[in-house]
Amino acid sequence: MERSDIESLGDRKSFKDMYKELDAETKDLVDKQVYNTFNAYVKRLRLSTEDLTKSILDVGTGGGGFIYYLREYLNNDKAYGIDKKTKEGNKCDDDFIIVGDALELPFENESFEIVVSKHCIPQFLSDEIKMFKSINELIRVAKKGGKIVADISSPEAESEYLEDTDNQQKNKTRYENSIKLQDYINALNPDEYQVSFVNLIDGSLHKVVAIEKLV
Known about the structure:
This protein has a 7-stranded mixed sheet, with helices on both faces. By secondary structure, the chain is of the alpha/beta class. Helix 2 crosses helix 3 (about 65-70). Strand 1 (about 55-60), helix 3 (about 65-70) and strand 2 form a beta-alpha-beta unit. The longest helix has 22 residues, at about 25-45. It is about 35% helix and about 20% strand. The chain starts with 13 loop residues before the first helix and ends with a strand. Mean pLDDT is about 85; it is low at about 1-15 and about 90-95.
């Protein structure tokens, strides 16, 4: 896929056009759905008010609720989402929700100040090559002085599945790779990256990693 300049992706706001045509009850449901998605991102990834004003890429954006909220309610026109799924399930065909692969992000190096990923990295734990490629792609497109925030499956979380005899080998691979991933992130050059992990307490079996790109 040819990489894109984020400034050329367009600023068409078809969500607003669609939203104007909804009845009051449906508008209320949409508002709640989009806000709940946004709020889940902010809480899980511990995003600050300042973070939300910067250029943001949401990798594995799904329906794009987080990006819609940033653009339509917080007026951040520098927010983009990308997901491998087609746009059929999204609320509208907006230019800022892009169809693309998390393993080959269609952006130049250092394109975004904030790169987030919720529930995306754990999907690659069964394949070590894809796992490392996914985290490296997040780092690649983050600007110097920027930040990468993603939830990952921790070794502790993956150990919960080891007794599942039906998927024993798959779960063993995920468990071993989750350890490798955390070790890999911890081994990033401290002169270039500042790394921190936060254990989640919501029963999701994930933890969040924040990687600040210093230089």
